[in-house]
Amino acid sequence: MNQSLKQKLKGVFRFLPALRLVWQASPVWTTTHVVLIIIQGIIPIILLYLTKLIIDTVTVSVTTTNKESLFQKLVFFIILTGVATLINVFCSAIGELVKTAQSRKVTDYMSSILHAKSIEVDLEYYENPQYFDTLQRAQQEAIYRPNIILGNLVWVAQNFISLVTMVGLLLSLHWGIGGILFVAAIPSVLVRIKFTEILFHWQRKQTAMERQGQYLSWLLTGDNFAKEIRLFNLGNIFSQQYDTLRKKLYQENLNISTKRSFANVAAQSLAALLMLAAYSYIIYQAFLGIIRIGDLVIYREALQRGQSALTGLLGSLSSLYEDNLFLSNLYEFLDLKPNIVQPANPKPVPKPIQKGIVFERVSFQYANSQRQAIKDINLTLGAGEVIALVGENGSGKTTLIKLLCRLYEPTSGNITVDGINLNQLDTTAWRREVSVIFQDYVKYHFTAAENIRLGNVEIPANDQSVVSAAMLSGAHDVITRLPQSYHTVLGKLFNQGEELSIGQWQKVALARAFLRKSQIIVLDEPTSAMDPKAEYEVFENFRQLIKGQAAILISHRLSTVKMADRIYVMDQGSIVESGTHEELIQLQGSYAYLFETQAQNYR
Ligand SMILES: Nc1ncnc2c1ncn2[C@@H]1O[C@H](COP(=O)(O)OP(=O)(O)OP(=O)(O)O)[C@@H](O)[C@H]1O
Fold it and tell me: Where found in the cell (predicted)?
């Protein structure tokens, strides 16, 4: 057997993981769903059999004198027919409810699996377009495919039983008729499998384009972009780009669908001709008097039912193949492994940190980049020390912080805390000790109190420490002026939300950092959007604010970092100067030059 056929067959039977997901999502609804489908599959056969019994009884009654017992029998069969019909009606009515409930459960379960995986993977994945393609494909399939697999398996069973019965009947007439049934069904199945594969590969190729379309649509409809799109009059341009993209996708899809339709016409015409030949043979047998008119009717019925059972069976088998092919998109996503590995036996995080954090010849290059973002960095942050990183845009300051938080692994060199390499610590436990507010901090569209509490979710809601943190960052005054004070929803996304200015948002984010009970605090341009008074208040009493935490400050305003114990000046990924403010001024290097330039602007 050639390799690809083997793989295809393997694909057909790789439905167990999907069934497991369906089962895990909702064992009770799934069982009920299957039981109902089975009952609904059996009842038509029972009804058919009861009809036969009724006809037989009526036929006998015509020639019998003792009609009373036959009448009782007849009444009994009619009652049974009524009961079976009622059960059928009940099952289909309840079936709708069960189907809806079960598929909603599966949908929600699959969403939570996708969410869990999205959190588990490293930040690095989020800088990789292929990751988003994989995620998009997984999202498309995960929601409904597992349920369809379940349905298709039940269909396979139902059609198989039906087929065996009908083929048995037809074989009694001529073996060739059974054969024709099979031959007639094959072309349609081949067409389906072929076009499923074509569509699958086309969709995989088009994911990036689909996402580009979604991005344009997001630009056109998202609140973040509404201002600029209007002012730069970009609406029509983006909208045209979107239309061009969608037209291309539509055209390619239509081409495949058209080809598939023609192939289907050819396959189904061939099947119809073969069935006509079989039917003609049955008619001819009746014409010759070999079979009776009654037989003709039965065989025709068996032929039709047999054909629909076989088409159904092969159809559900090829659907299973299709489902599995497309579900590989989901498995591909679920199989992603984080690059940052957790140590098997993590060492405890030092509490309190005694000696401090040391960067030893640390270099790092982003996976999607040709250049080193930081090179050969040596840096020390002693316990309770405040250090500052300054340098031009792109000099590597934020990257250094990301390495400290173990969002990435250094390409070379070591980062240690009290002599223990960060890769020997449990990542979550380590991150608990670092409180970071990045430049692109998150504006949560939750209440003001929740926005701050997210810095330390271990404290209860409405804890007084939220207010204390807000006071330290200057957010308290902003929040108390809001209509519902700390209970006001921030942002404009939800009803009664109150939008803040960028500087006000920054104060809220800073409060989040202050709330966290960590040993290290990292503020990446924390006051860049604050007014001078607010900024002054933060840095004036900075050491009291951080209460003995070690701190790393990143700022372009050198006046704010003057008080640091040590200032590191970065340039193109390297540290080019370091020392206290006074030492660096005396050095008369790039720091002194920058400081002097900024100071002149304020004179
Ligand atoms: N996710 C990324 N993937 C690839 N390259 C990146 C990524 N993030 C940053 N870089 C590159 O790494 C270098 C350092 O960036 P980094 O953000 O650390 O600079 P920075 O000093 O914090 O700059 P700024 O002052 O503008 O905040 C830059 O050349 C940047 O282009």
Answer: Cell membrane
The full set of domains in the chain, from first to last, is 5-335 (1.20.1560.10), 346-439+525-602 (3.40.50.300), 443-516 (3.40.50.300)
C-alpha to C-alpha distance for 264 and 119, rounded to whole angstroms: 44
Q: What is the pTM of this model?
A: 0.77
Count Cβ atoms below 10 Å from residue 165 Cβ, excluding itself: 14
Q: Is the CB of 312 under 6 A from ligand 1?
A: no
Nearest CA to ligand 1 atom 12: 373
Kindly give the number of the ligand 1 atom that is closest to the alpha carbon of 395.
21
The verdict on ipTM greater than 0.95 is yes
Residue nearest to atom 26 of ligand 1 (CA): 393
Q: Quick check: 291 and 299 in contact, CB under 8 A?
A: yes
At position 119, the amino acid (one-letter code) is I
Q: For residue 1, is pLDDT > 50?
A: no
Is pLDDT above 80 for 346?
Answer: yes
**Band of the pLDDT at 522, cuts 50, 70, 90?**
very high
Report the alpha-carbon distance of residue 230 to residue 232 in Å, rounded.
Answer: 6
Cβ atoms of 281 and 173 within 8 Å: the answer is: no
132 lines ligand 1 (CB under 6 A): no
Q: Is the CB of 369 under 6 A from ligand 1?
A: yes
Q: Mutual orientation of helices 145-171 and 27-63 as an angle, nearest 10°? A: 20
Cβ–ligand 1 contact at 207 (below 6 Å): no
Ligand 1 contact, 389 CB (< 6 A)? no
Any long-range contacts for 293-296 (C-beta under 8 Å, 24+ apart)? 295/173
Cβ–ligand 1 distance for 377 under 6 Å, the answer no
